[in-house]
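Q: Please design a sequence for this.
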């Protein structure tokens, strides 16, 4: 899953969270307070799940495989870590 798709899923999930809060206390509370509280409890779980889902690593993503990690002179003083020897 590419970065843009993960970001889109994150924003959709967070919009759903905000929508649940607004709908619960703007509309549903007039009909059923327990239902509004239940909606808020569901909305409370969405942000951590959205963060976990948005930061999940996919097999085709290579942002985690930095070629500088294989640089044998990585720890030497004066070595420019932004420019590997390769």
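A: Design:
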């Amino acid at each position: 899953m590419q970065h843009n798709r993960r970001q889109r899923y994150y924003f959709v999930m967070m919009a759903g969270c905000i929508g649940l809060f607004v709908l619960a206390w703007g509309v549903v509370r007039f009909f059923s307070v327990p239902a509004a509280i239940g909606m808020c409890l569901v909305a409370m779980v969405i942000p951590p799940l959205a963060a976990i889902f948005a930061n999940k690593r996919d097999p085709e993503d290579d942002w985690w495989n930095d070629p500088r990690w294989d640089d044998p002179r990585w720890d030497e003083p004066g070595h420019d870590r932004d420019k590997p020897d390769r």
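Q: Thanks. Anything notable?
A: The first helix runs from residue 3 to 26. Helices lie at 3-26, 33-54.
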